[in-house]
Design brief:
By secondary structure, this protein is of the alpha/beta class. Helix content is about 45%, strand content about 20%. The protein has 11 helices and 10 strands. Strands 1, 2, 3, 4, 5, 6, 7, 8, 9 and 10 form a 10-stranded mixed beta sheet that branches. The radius of gyration is 24 Å and the shape is globular.
Amino acid sequence: MRKPPLFWHVALCAILCIATAVQAAGAEYPEKPIRWIVPSAAGGVSDATVRVVTAELAKRLGQAFVIDNRPGATGIIGLDAIAKSKPDGYTIGSAALSSIVTGSLVAKNLPYNTSRDFLPIAMLSTQPNLLGVASSLPVKSVKELVAYSQSHPNAIFYGSNGNGSSLHVATELFRASTGLRATHVPYKSTPAAEMDLIAGQLQMLIDNFGTMAPNVQSGRVRALAITGPKRSPLLPDVPTMAEAGVPGAEMVAWTGVVGPSGIPANIIQKLNSEINAVLADPKVVKQLRDLASDPAPMSVGQFDQFLKMETARWSAVIRNNNITAD
């Protein structure tokens, strides 16, 4: 039998290659479970926020989400795992003010480049911090706290979850904005600092609103101000920093989503659209607000710009106050 001309073999190969490419391009993302790295321990507000969002996101995308908690080093361990993941959209993770901004800014040797190794995907939520003092301290306002610290040198000790942490940075901003005289005591965790605040071993602490509020409601801690731009319905009598006379000391904690550099733009856009749809779900809004958080949907471009603005702002605060990591 006569063999077909060579060009038929070439043409057939070309057709098969095109068909394969079309089939691959038409594959619907996602086709398998997605790993979501959380650079903090299970049980915290950031972890809980991710679990609320992914429970609904899994329904919309038709694939499960595997939560991978990677705590340690102010979030750097988890972020490094995200940066070094395959950029195929099947590994993404959380990025927070405390990790990708302040934690990365004060670190001496980062295993990644924050501007080069990550791509912004979506914003999830925001949450203010709360300025609290020991119930035994004879002050009931920010003004009285500052005055007391100035008339009682070396009497105010404040805690944080480590040198260079976002809570340390927030308190140093507050101190610089008010003239507060206080000594920093770094802890390994904020729960340990809160316990010492309740016991009176610490006199002051700026901490996550969601974890501080129950101690305020029980009378074990006295709240002086919220670091966000508005009062909380959970503690409506507590003024904002601006209302307390310190508008420059605002800090809003936040959680967003990033992926390793190289993820295709269409996958990023799909994730962003689906996450924003989840954040608009009334059930999710209620669940987040029960965690003292507010959903904060953004486009990819808006989140990218937000990250740049936050980095610029807190870089100046860290530099001006000579803040370093452990």
